[in-house]
Amino acid sequence: MKQFLKKNKGNILFLAVLALLIIPQTRTPIQVFVQRLISFSPSETDVEERKQLTDYNWNLTSLENNGVDFSESKGRVILINFWATWCPPCIAEMPSLQNLYDEYGERVDFYLVTSEEPEIVQRFMDKKGYTFPIYIQHTKAPKVLFSQSLPTTYLISKKGEIVIKETGAADWDSEKTKGIIDGLLDN
Question: Can you give the residue ranges of the Thioredoxin domain (predicted)?
Answer without folding.
Answer: 31-186
